[in-house]
Amino acid sequence: MKIQKFEELNIWKLSLEITKEIYDLTSKGNFSKDFGLRDQIRRAVVSISSNIVEGFEKNNNNEFVRFLKISKGSAGEVRNQLYIALAIPYISQKEFDELNGKLENLACQVGAFIVYLQKKKINKEFLRK
Fold first, then answer.
1. What is the pTM of this model?
2. pLDDT score recorded for residue 123
């Protein structure tokens, strides 16, 4: 079954869920007043889903893979910023563990999807010979 629109992608759905949680978390307490870190983590988390969508809409596997790699990098950036928020401390260990786990899971899923798309391309090239 071929995916027809980005809304069908589980990685996009998960990235949206994480985005909402980051926005909720950064709207509370001292985190909400630290405009630099708050805005940076929000930009990075929005970048995850935005790059998934932009890559999908290119209708080209090579471009999709490129944008998925950017998305995966943004997930790493958000994880780093969560470590900073934990150290300051703007967030609790429990909040950190929950979100960090979701981001690790998302990064693994994106990575697996990248591998799938790359293998799909290799198989097509092999069949042409």
1. 0.92
2. 59
